[in-house]
Amino acid sequence: MATTDESDGLTPESRSGRELLEGVLFASPYLIIFGVFLLLPLLIGGYMSLFDWNALAPAESTFVGLENYAQLLADPQFRNALVNTVYFALLTVPSILLVGLGLALGVNRDIKGQGFLRAVFFSPYILTVSVAAILWTDLYSTQYGVINYYLGMVMANPPQWLQSRLFAMPAIALTTVWWLVGFSFVILLSARQSVPEYLYEAARLDGAGTWRQFRDVTVPQMRGAIFFVIVINLIWAFQVYGQPYVMTAGGPGQATETLVMYLYQAAFNQRSFGYASAIGYVLTAILVGVSIANYYLLGGDNE
Amino acid sequence: MSEATADQGRRQEGVESSTTTGFSTRTVLVHVAMYGAALLFLVPYAYMISTSLKTPEAAVATGMSWIPSPVTFGSYVELFATSQILQWGLNTLIISSTTTILVLVVDSMIAFSLTRLDWTGQRYLLALIVASFMVPGFVNIIPLYLVIAELGLINNYLAVILPFAAGPLGVFLLVQFFRDIPYELQEAAQLDGFSNFRIYTRMILPLSKSILTALALFMFVWSWNQFLWPLIVLQSEAAYTLPIGVVVLRDNFTIQPALTMASAVVASGPLFILFLLLQEQLMTAVEMQGVT
Predict the structure, then answer these.
(1) Which candidate from B64, B193, B268 shows the least CB-CB separation from A127?
(2) Do B139 and A131 count as a contact with CB atoms less than 8 A apart?
(3) pLDDT tens digits, residue range A31-72?
(4) Which residues of chain B are within 8 Å of residue A112 when distances are taken between CB atoms?
(5) Which CA distances in Å does A76 have to A71, A80, A205, A257, B226?
(6) How many whole angstroms separate alpha carbon A105 and alpha carbon A188?
(7) CB contact under 8 A, B106 and A30
(8) A87 or A231, which is more confident?
(9) Strand, coil or helix: what is A228?
(10) Contacts (Cβ under 8 Å, ≥6 apart) of B152
(11) Residue limits of the ABC transmembrane type-1 domain (chain A) (predicted)?
């Protein structure tokens, strides 16, 4: 790194030349890693998705244009994975928002043991997905599971959670809510705590009850945080992989196979790299769509 | 939303304000709800720990006993004796520490360049990095796999470390923070003949300790918990990380919850200790994501 001891003696041009040089030097370690491991793969992926990719001899791959994408539209397994992923998102995103908001508003009140409660609700988030999934697989077990042991006391035939087409996905969603809600909870709690108290006092002076205060003060004031929570959970939900991989392996049948699972299978089991890249690009398009929608919604909020 | 609910709300408010001493019903209800929820959140942990301390037979017995009798550490002993879990723990530790350090160095350098130095092109670069937020890690796995394979890094720690050393999150958080450090300080240092490198190491980094700690913790936990990517690029059992190891173990020892839960305790124990010691900093990192 050059020293700038005598910067006073320099002409403005050479000083700005040096700033540029130093600026680039400081930025370069990041930029190299960013370029090689993020931008480059992104471009390669787009390129590959246009080929019937030969994994063993890439040079002999055949150009197929948009055929991979056309094939996706007609592929029932892709459609199934897409539907399952959307279903998973519908089950988890609203639940995480509502549970997270409920817990945040509860903990925000004048309650004993606030710090303890905050730690408890956040804690599952620090588990790895495989531990969370293994743990809940055992809780759901039909032979020795805790859940059906207690359900068995009140009903004759408790569901066979992970073996059932109907219940497998909701069971995975419940696991996910427990595992991830802590993140959203912390963000919502911090947003709630930064709502100025005088707004509530003013609302009370106007005779607003709890519900009106919630609707007219809390929700509008927390709008940014609520949108953020929705979007980040949508992005996570569309990339769901670990929970179904560990808990059901996509079954029963293909009832819990998700987009990323299908992508993984197409790439690493069937070696259809071009086709899998096309799945990746469609997934990216969906997520970019979600992010852009968020940007406009938030943009409207900031004005 | 309806008028009726609004009226009800007003009536409830009236009830509360008339209770001047002691617990109002509502306070009691909130406590019951929150502690009830906390209990539900803790049940899985109770199951995990209790089962890991049971004999193999007691762990699969129908009916639920929360307190194991007899308490045995047999599953832990067997786990350490028959699996490579210690090796996996070491792998995970090396990978997450290296990733964390690399992220701190590389991200703080570029954030310094983007905020404290003045050169054309900064704005476009920041815009590019922010835009890359939208590219989710998972969708890049196939081409990234090819790049890693081409570099000869399959089964190498670097395959897990490098791709995550340039995430946009850290840059974004640090840029926000560095911007708020007064520029007068920097000018004074420049008048004293400090080079930019010294300003970076002696001034900006020490002033940013709080955010660097929060970012470090977040990255460490995140990196420790990675699952899909290590699963793809780490192909020999000796190279596995804990998150992969516990799944492989479960598949090898079918229906042995005591052993599986012991491995889950071992895999998450270190993070829980870290969490108990440094929860404020970790939650700060999460809160900052919500703010940015």
Answers:
(1) B268
(2) no
(3) 999 999 988 988 888 888 888 887 777 777 778 878 889 888
(4) 31
(5) 10, 6, 59, 12, 30
(6) 8
(7) yes
(8) A87
(9) helix
(10) none
(11) 82-294
Name the residue with tokens 């549970």.
A99
Compare all CA atoms of chain B with the CA of A266 and give the residue at the minimum distance.
B142
Q: Which among B31, B64, B260 is the nearest to A146, CB-wise?
A: B64
Which residues of chain B lie closer than 8 angstroms to A229, CB-CB?
Answer: 290
* Alpha helices (H) in B116-208, listed in sequence order: 122-131, 141-150, 157-161, 168-179, 183-191, 196-198, 205-207
d(CA B187, CA B27): 54
Reduce the secondary structure of A196-223 to three states and give it as a string: CHHHHHHHHHCCCCHHHHHHHHHHHHCH
Give the single-character DSSP code of A125: G
* Contact of B160 with B225, CB cutoff 8 Å: no
Q: Give the gap in angstroms from C-alpha B58 to the nearest C-alpha of chain A.
A: 10
Alpha helices per DSSP H over chain A = 12-34, 40-48, 67-74, 76-108, 114-122, 129-139, 146-154, 168-193, 197-205, 210-213, 219-221, 223-238, 242-247, 259-264, 273-302
Q: Which residues, 6 or more positions from B216, have their beta carbon under 8 angstroms from its beta carbon?
A: B100, B103, B104
Both structure tokens of B67: 């307190």
Among A51, A65, A56, residue whose Cα is nearest residue A275: A51
The neighbouring-strand residues paired with A63 are A51
What is the interface pTM, i.e. ipTM, of the complex? 0.86
Cα dihedral across residues B73, B76, B80, B82: positive or negative: positive
Q: What is the CA A186 to chain-centroid distance, rounded?
A: 16
Nearest Cα residue to A232 out of A264, A268, A200, A186: A186
Q: Side chain identity at B63, as an amino acid letter?
A: G
- Amino acid making up residue A78: F
Provide the whole-model pTM: 0.88
Nearest Cα residue in chain A from B92: A128
**3 state DSSP class of B98:** helix
Give the number of residues written for chain B.
292
Distance CA A162, CA A141 (A): 8
